[in-house]
Structures are given as C-alpha cells and as structure tokens.
Amino acid sequence: MTNATSNPDLLPPPLWSLPEPDPQTFRVRPLRIGNVDIGFPAVQAALSGYSDGAMRIVARRLGAPYTLAEVMIDRFVLELKNRRRTQHHLQLTDEEHPVGGQLMGSDPKEFGPAATRLVEAGFDIIDINFGCPVKSAVGGCRGGYHLSQPSVALEIVDRVREAVPPQIPVTLKMRRGIDDSQGSRDRFFQIMDGAFNRGVAAITVHGRTVEQKYVGPSNWEFLRDVKLHAKDRTILGSGDLFTAQSCLDMLRRTGVDGVSVARGAIGNPWIFQQVRDLANGLPAMIPDLAEQRRVQLMQCELSLQFKTDVQTCSTMRAFGLKFARLHPQPDVVRNAFAAAKSLEEWRRVLDTNY
Ligand SMILES: Cc1cc2nc3c(=O)[nH]c(=O)nc-3n(C[C@H](O)[C@H](O)[C@H](O)COP(=O)(O)O)c2cc1C
Asked: Does residue 3 sit within a domain?
C-alpha cells in the first residue's frame, strides 16, 4: 500500500485550526454502535495484512474495546474453504467479542450472501468498505471507488442491511471523498445521509481522499463538519492517530463519538491503555522491554493457533519491524527482525534484544 506504512514521525501534523474545548466540560463518552455497547471510544481499525485474530486478541487484552478484522473481498468470503492457509479469516474466539467483519466488493448482489457468511462466522458488526484507495481495489470498482457512485453505494448498503439480522449493526468505512472537489464532497454527504436513512448504525470517516492515498494529513476539520452534520448519529474518526494524545485530541477537537486507531496500533497495542490513562488524567503507561517481549511472544503464540509456522513467521517479522519503534535501538532491532527467516531466528532476535 503506497506510503501507508511510512514512518509516522515524518508525516505532517494534522490540521490544528480546530478549537480546544473547555477542559472543564469535556468528557469522554462511552461508545455504542447500534445495540452493541463498545464502552471506551478508542477502537482498533481494520488493517489489511495486520488485524488478524492474534493482533485483535492482543489489542483486546491490552484495552481495545472493539476490533475489526482485515477487509475481505465478498467473493473471497463466499469461496472460502476450510483450508489451513485461509480458514483463519473466519475463525473467531470467545474473548474477541464484539468484533467487526469488513466487506469490500464491486457487485451489490454479492454483498448480501457474503455478509450472511460473516454473520454465520460470528462477527458482531458488519462493516462495508467504501475507502480502500489501492490501485487494485479502485481499478476493480471496489472500496473507495464507490464514493463516486452514490446510487450503487446505497444499493450495497440496502443489500447488506436486508441480509443481516436486525440485531446486528451494519456500519460503513468511508474516506472523505475521491478528491478535493465540491462534487466529491456532495457525494460523500449523499452516501452518508442515505446510509443512515437505510439503517446504518455508525460511519467511520478517514479524513483523507482516495486520490490522496496516505500522502499528507488527514483533514480533521472535515471530521468536525461530518459530526456537526450527523448530529446524534454515530461517527468515528480516522487518520493520523499515532499517539494516545492524538486520539484524545481527535475526540475533543472534532466531537466524533469514537476514534479508530490504525497505524498507531501496529506494534503498539499499549496505545489503547495509554488513551484510557490520559482520559483519566494519569500519565500514559510506558511498556518496558520485558513487557514488549511478553506481548510479542503472546502474539506469536496466538498466531500459531490460527496460522501455519511460515505464515506466523512472516506476520511476526512484519510486526517486529513496527514493535522495534519502541526499542531504544530501533534501527538495530528492525534490521535484526528483517533478517529473521524462521520463527527460531525471530525468537533469537527477541532473546538478544529484549
Ligand atoms: C496497512 C494498512 C492496511 C489497512 N487496511 C484497511 C482495511 O482492511 N480496511 C479499512 O477500512 N481500512 C484499512 N486501512 C485504513 C486504516 O484503517 C485507517 O483508516 C488509515 O490508516 C488512517 O489512519 P492512520 O493515519 O491513523 O493510520 C489500512 C491502512 C493501512 C496502513
């Protein structure tokens, strides 16, 4: 994904022209999505290539009240067989709930049956992806492409809402538009209002355009406008949530009901506890090396319950590169993880550095 995983420290800061609310009156409010009580309003986003069962369980154990699985293409969901390599996509554990499953596709007709399969697998909330900016998705008329065609987007919403039992919330993930044009903005609001009118329980808005991919800041002013427009309907914000403080800032300055932590949670699952700490007026907990080691080993053990050794090695190597950011010698540790070719070598990196 272009620039998606580049060093957040190098990204420009978010737009800060939003007013600081009165600290005396601001309160973090518990989040509810339809009839599902989420609680603390900092959740873990859907992250393709990352938010597998192991990452989601680690996030839940460390304080995330709700997580989303990696996006799945509708046809992929329908064709999934009980094969060791792919079955993990629909495997859920008791401790994960509530957990969201996310669908992406081009043909509205495929969405209903795919959503039904996610419900049968046990997902508590069904999320529709109208945001993915990658070439293969947009070129295949999926993800963010739907922001250009409100009538098709809303037909997808109808199909999913009809297929999913009424007690299971349907939600949307949207970018703020295809590009910066007025037409794109108008279509965003057309889809948003149409979706709420069709029974969508919450919308997560990423403040970047599809064209923007991950270049430049997420527009938090847009998020504030969205929440003002949505009034009491539930909006979660996304974009540039790299620290616990930025999560709290987004809640306070934009008025959104929840924040969806994405890159900031890859290799830093402690961020969920840190936001809670800050919201309680406490200093954010800092994970020492022993804690960083404990959590990486825990994630590896969990991963092996769902995935093969080879898959787990490649996943843990990818996460290791991100966990390394918290190490006092990030470059040394990052290079060591990058060179690990087996789980044994990965464990040796932990033994040597943590
Ligand atoms: C590697 C990667 C994978 C992603 N996968 C998904 C996905 O499966 N579904 C989704 O809705 N968004 C996905 N996103 C978008 C994030 O959920 C989030 O909206 C975006 O990264 C902006 O937040 P951030 O700037 O705080 O990272 C992904 C982002 C990244 C970087």
From this structure: no
